[in-house]
Amino acid sequence: MSLRSSKLRRILPALALTCLTAPALVLPAHATTTATTTATTGTTAGIFRAAASFPTWGTRWVVHATPDINSPSVGTINQNSAGQDRITADYQVDTGRRVCEGSACSTFMAHITAPVTGFLTVVAVDIPQDRLPGVPVQDAPPGGGAPTGSRQRTLERAATWLTANGGRPVPYSQSARWRDGYRQDCSGYASMALGLPTPGTNTVGLATNRKLTRPIAMGELQPGDLVIDALGNSNTRHVVIFERWNNAAHTSYTAYEQRGGPGTTHRTLTYGLKAGSEYRAYRPVQYGD
């Protein structure tokens, strides 16, 4: 791409509409920036994936729940300024549907793990190619997204409630049900993420029903596992969805949580890590491990 085209790309107003379409004209894509490989991740559905970091361009790009530009939003990158966020991707999917913004076009959507977990059009990434270099291409499961019952699918579903309320989190309630039929409390939220029947299993059921979960050590937590306090009453019992450890010492972790006040959140927690805590770790049996 010429220097002039590269500069033009950087100043074009990029909206968050990843569903923008354009004629099937092959145009040069992104500005010249090289991706940096950062790590090799663990397994998701038994697949090893190399994670790589990339710069972005434009503003307000939507991150989707599945590799479908019409799927729900799970968040936005570059919300305030172009290139504000740098994304980390572990694989990409050729959707067969071209997305264009300015002179950049691509049919690929990348599965990103930071700063939001979900799928982002490669058009939002500041590279000269129409796909991410060095990142594996994976076929999308039937229906899009991760396989039902997988850890990845649990996290994708959990992320949808962060923006399901008109771009805002789903509010907390122990009695109300959200539009998808699930209770808006912590156990209803966890049931939604796991794909359990509506309106959702209660916290005690998530901890004690061995058809749903089994106890594990806190140190064994993996993405999509649950951390549960099943003691006390409805005002003290709680469940969160583990996403990742924040450090090698396992002194904190990032999790999805439905709680009073803010509703759905994605934040750092330490539940279960201190001596005497009533929180315990559980693994959904649907993962098969």
Concise synopsis of the structure shown:
This protein is mainly β. It is built from four helices and 13 strands. The strands form three sheets. It has a six-stranded antiparallel sheet. The chain has a five-stranded antiparallel sheet with strand order 1-2-5-6-7.
List segments where confidence is low: pLDDT < 50 over at least 5 consecutive residues.
1-35, 37-49
Shape: globular
Biggest sheet strand line-up? 8-13-9-10-11-12
Order of helices and strands: HEEEEEEEHHHEEEEEE
Q: Tally the helices: what do you get?
A: 4
Largest sheet: 6 strands, antiparallel
Radius of gyration: 20 Å
Euclidean distance between termini CA atoms: 48 Å
Q: Overall pLDDT, averaged?
A: 81
Strand portion: 25-35%
Please report the total strand number as a whole number: 13
Helicity level, as a percent range? 10-25%
User: Helix- and strand-based class?
Assistant: mainly beta
Characteristics:
289 residues; mainly beta; six-stranded antiparallel β-sheet; five-stranded antiparallel β-sheet; 4 helices; 13 strands; 32% strand; disordered N terminus
Helix and strand arrangement:
Layout: H1 3-11, E1 36-44, E2 47-55, E3 61-64, E4 73-77, E5 86-101, E6 104-114, E7 118-121, H2 151-160, H3 186-194, H4 203-208, E8 213-216, E9 226-229, E10 238-245, E11 253-259, E12 263-269, E13 280-284
Helix pairs in contact: 2-3
Protein model, in words:
By secondary structure, this protein is mostly beta strands. It has helices at residues 3-11, 151-160, 186-194, 203-208; strands at 36-44, 47-55, 61-64, 73-77, 86-101, 104-114, 118-121, 213-216, 226-229, 238-245, 253-259, 263-269, 280-284. It has a six-stranded antiparallel beta sheet with strand order 8-13-9-10-11-12. Strands 1-2-5-6-7 form a five-stranded antiparallel beta sheet. The protein has a two-stranded antiparallel sheet with strand order 3-4. A hairpin with a 3-residue loop joins strand 6 and strand 7 (118-121). Helix 2 (151-160) crosses helix 3 (186-194). It is globular, with a radius of gyration of 20 Å. Residues 1-35 and 37-49 have low confidence and may be disordered.
